[in-house]
Amino acid sequence: MLQTRQLEFSYDGKMQFHFPDFSCASKESWLLLGQSGSGKTTLLHLLGGMLTPKKGQIIVNEQDITRLSSSQLDRFRGQHIGIIFQKSHFVKALTVEENLVLAQQLARLSVDRNRVQSLLDRLNVGHKLKSKPDNLSIGEQQRVAIARAIINKPTIILADEPTSALDDHNCTEVIALLEEEAHKAGATLLVVTHDNRLKTKFSNQILLDQEIQKL
Amino acid sequence: MNIFQISWKNIINKPLNATLSLVLFALGVGLISLLLILNKQIEEKFEKNLAGIDLVIGAKGSPLQLILASMYHIDAPTGNISLKSAAPFLNPKHPLIGTAVPLSVGDNYKGYRIVGTTPTILELYDSVQVEEGRIWENVFEVVVGKVVAQKVGLKLGDRFYGSHGLMDNDDLAHDDVEAFKVVGILEGTGSVVDQLILTANQTVWAVHDHGAEESASDTAATHDHHTHTMDLSKPLSEYPEKDITSLLIKFKSRSFQTLNMPRSINENTDMQAATPAIEINRIYSMIGDGEEALRYLAIIIIIVSGLSIFISLFSSLRERRYELALMRVMGASPGKLFLLIILEGLLLAVIGYVLGILISHLGMSVFATQMEETYRYSFSGWSFLPQEAYLLVGALAVGFLAAVIPAIQARNTDISTTLSEG
């Protein structure tokens, strides 16, 4: 589960963001909607433990991650938070399989190659196990990115504009896949987007309107 | 899959980038290591063959040449001296001289020098023993060094003709006289005697006098008669009309008088006396200058290769900043990213080092073969030095220094900013 309380953030003390409080239970899927510049990505990075808020609490799995030391946060991120980025990035020198194994290792979890294989099979990219990420199509890369986000059975899955580069057909498919996998992993799914196609697909929505104060 | 393997895969993922750094690194390390091995082995040869010889007396000319020809058997002799002038030094009752070894040089067999001398020469070189057979007792009997026996395949009882001069040349074979007969093979010592064919001075005279006499008389009778006039039991001083090439002298003890002896010989006789220690130091200082220049060149190459590792890591970071941020997202600590880049630098350095050592030792083997063909000295390409371990430490230091700035950059990767860029 994921919960925020009185979250505030500021870039260099110039722009100040106030975020609404929200609480998402396990196995729920949420949509975070907002226009460009509304602080969507900032919120995602705060939730992912990649930025430190100025004020407030972020509670993931009953742990306030704003209170963790940086090394505790690194480990927590690896084990409990799965992130899918707008563009899929991989360690280019490693194969698809090695990238997933790396995710297990960096989170200091034991390596489970069977899970890697079965997960990729389920996402229809099992045959790309030994390929380098650069040799995959955009769609395949997206699936591998999803696999990497859920490989460690995280508590929350954050997806940043996962559908912006996809056509309608793939958009529907990827969202279905994400929901299904998040559900299987028992995780909370939070999709951050300005893609209006998704509005109808999620019943739980958070709307980020202009809560930014320019100081 | 550990961080070491990730570093390795990053390197082989960009083979061209790595190649330039590696080639430069290998060249630098190779050059330094080659200099070390060469220096060491040449010094060893010189030291080993000093054999406690205090003075070399021979014909006037270059003292260095006299030393090289008489002690190391790599240069032509300066000429001959008459036994008449050399006789005082051969006198066993000489108050200062402990050992005096007369040498008659001028012939070879398949490039190995035939040296006419007395059995006392064996004492000079750690009292080398005859391993098989016995020492020469008659004219035309020879004792061969271990290396000669092995390389040429000479065995006890074998007969062969020497050829005139110091380089192998079949056209100059002395096949008009009696053949040499192998009566002994020396044990191997690693010193210059291993590559010599030793015989009595009288044998060398017999071979050469014959040539001179042949023009006057042609009969087989004179032939036989002549060779048998040489009697090994008579001391050399009984042949004042004969020549020798040089004398190796070892003093009983060093004193003021022995210190003055070279000067007095050089000033008062038509011979020259050369002190090995002085001449060898001259060689060292000559080699030293060239070696120093090469060493600086090698150090510059290594610095440039370090720079090339730095540039290739630094520019790869620009390309890899997303994946570094990604690794942070996946749970890697900043220290891990630092280590990842440092390991890449160290790996390149180690591979470069291994290649360099391989190059130098291969180079040394090639050089060793050449040296053996030209001078009959055997060098080894595959002996390793403790200094090469220090070189590894140096290589690692260069790899670390080249990687440290990129590694700090990697450690400081800001996840949020990097990922929101793309």
Question: What multimeric state do the chains show?
Answer: heterodimer
Corresponding CATH architecture of chain A: 3-Layer(aba) Sandwich
Number of helical stretches of at least 4 residues of chain A: 6
Estimate what percentage of residues of chain A fall within beta strands.
25-35%
CATH-assigned homologous superfamily of chain A: P-loop containing nucleotide triphosphate hydrolases
Structural class of chain B: alpha+beta
The count of β-strands of chain A is: 11
Q: How would you characterize this protein structure?
A:
The complex is a heterodimer of chains A (215) and B (422). By secondary structure, chain A is an alpha/beta fold. Chain A has a single domain, classed as 3-Layer(aba) Sandwich (Rossmann fold), CATH 3.40.50.300. Chain A has six helices and eleven strands. In chain A, the strands form two sheets. In chain A, strands 1, 2, 3, 5, 6 and 11 form a six-stranded antiparallel sheet that branches. Chain A has a five-stranded parallel sheet with strand order 7-8-9-4-10, with helices on both faces. In chain A, a hairpin with a 3-residue loop joins β1 and β2. Chain B is an alpha+beta fold and 422 residues long. Helix content of chain B is 57%, strand content 15%. Chain B is built from 13 helices and 13 strands. Chain B has helices at 3-13, 15-48, 63-72, 83-90, 121-124, 146-153, 201-214, 220-227, 256-268, 276-329, 334-375, 386-411, 415-421, and strands spanning 55-59, 81-82, 97-109, 112-117, 130-133, 141-144, 159-160, 163-164, 180-186, 196-200, 243-244, 246-251, 271-274. In chain B, strands 1, 3, 4, 5, 6, 7, 8, 9, 10, 12 and 13 form an eleven-stranded mixed sheet that branches. A two-stranded antiparallel ribbon of chain B has the order 2-11. In chain B, α11 packs antiparallel against α12. The model of chain B is unreliable at 213-228 (pLDDT under 50). The A-B interface holds A 41, 45, 48, 50-51, 70-71, 74-75, 77-79, 83, 85, 87, 89-94, 98, 101-103, 105-108, 111, 148 and B 1-2, 6, 9-10, 12-14, 320, 322-323, 325-334, 336, 415-416, 419-420, 422.
